Structures are given as C-alpha cells and as structure tokens.
Structure to design on (186 residues):
C-alpha cells in the first residue's frame, strides 16, 4: 500500500482550490476596471486595490502552474506527427494525432522493460487524411495493450457494430484492434 499523508494532501488540495478562486477574483477585478463607475472607485483607492490585485495574482500562480504542467503533459502524450511513421506493417501518415501511453523507458514490477515512445501507441486519429488499413479507409485506430503486425496475424472474422470493425483476439499479445471507418468511404 502506498503511504499517504492525509493532512498534507488536504493542505495541497486547499491551496489548489484557493488558488483557482484567487484567479477568478483577479479576473473579476480586471473586468471591474473596464466599468467606468467601479474604475473611478478603484482609482480613488489605488493602494488598497493595487495591493489586492497583486496578492490575487500571486495567489493564483499555483493553479496556473498546475494547469500549464497538465497541458504540457497532454501535448507530450498526444503529438501530431510531422512526418510519416512506420510501425511494423502500420503506416501513420504525417498529420496523424497519436496518443502515447509512456514517453520514457522504465521497468514494470516484474523487471521487464515497458514499451515507450511510438511503441506504446494507444490510438491514432487520422484527422487530415484518411488512412487505409487492410484496404479500408479509417478515421481512428485503437490498439489495445500492444503494437502488432496487422497482416501477419490471423484474426477472427470481423464484427460490424455501429460503424466500428472489431478484430478479435488472435494471441495473448493481441487483445483487440478497433478500426472506425468512414461511412460510405468518405
């Protein structure tokens, strides 16, 4: 079990929540400067409102920093390919948005290395140009658990459900591939 210090977690969460509230109050103060009547009131009490807005700006830094870090992490795990990538039999054209599970190498609990980078591909969205996999135009490709060679592995017959093609299990590594195709070949 992971040791968790509840008071420290509660304190951190309270700082995060108050930081978000401070950000909204800071934005409200800046909007109040746009209204002529409140602007005259605030300018008459310059030091008081200047200090208040500065404290609100400083208090909102933890929330802004946390949001920025989460956004950077999302961008790192969901890049748009600048050039064509080839993974086994799968060709991902430039402009494809991919979701990667792991960015850096590490070992799992049994000591085996875990795939990382493009080898940890979870799903790919073909936004700009449709891709053709096994002769079928696709918009989204979802790979579960491991990257596999699509042509060299035998698969069960395809099951059509709601416009999705589900290719069933064919080995212990290959659990499922979900291919969402364009309706009517669009």
């Amino acid at each position: 079990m992971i040791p968790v210090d509840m008071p420290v977690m509660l304190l951190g969460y309270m700082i995060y929540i108050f930081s978000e509230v401070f950000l909204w109050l800071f934005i409200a103060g800046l909007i109040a400067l746009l209204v002529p009547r409140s602007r005259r009131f605030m300018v008459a009490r310059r030091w008081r409102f200047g200090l208040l807005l500065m404290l609100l700006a400083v208090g909102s830094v933890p929330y802004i920093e946390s949001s920025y870090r989460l956004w950077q992490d999302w961008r790192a795990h969901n890049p748009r390919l600048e050039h064509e990538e080839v993974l086994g039999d799968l060709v991902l054209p430039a402009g494809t948005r991919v979701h990667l599970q792991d960015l850096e190498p590490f070992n799992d609990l049994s000591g085996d290395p875990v795939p990382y980078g493009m080898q940890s591909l979870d799903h790919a969205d073909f936004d700009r140009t449709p891709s053709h996999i096994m002769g079928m135009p696709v918009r989204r490709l979802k790979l579960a658990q491991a990257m596999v060679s699509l042509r060299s592995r035998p698969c069960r017959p395809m099951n059509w459900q709601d416009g999705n093609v589900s290719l069933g299990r064919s080995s212990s590594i290959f659990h499922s591939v979900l291919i969402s195709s364009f309706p009517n070949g669009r």
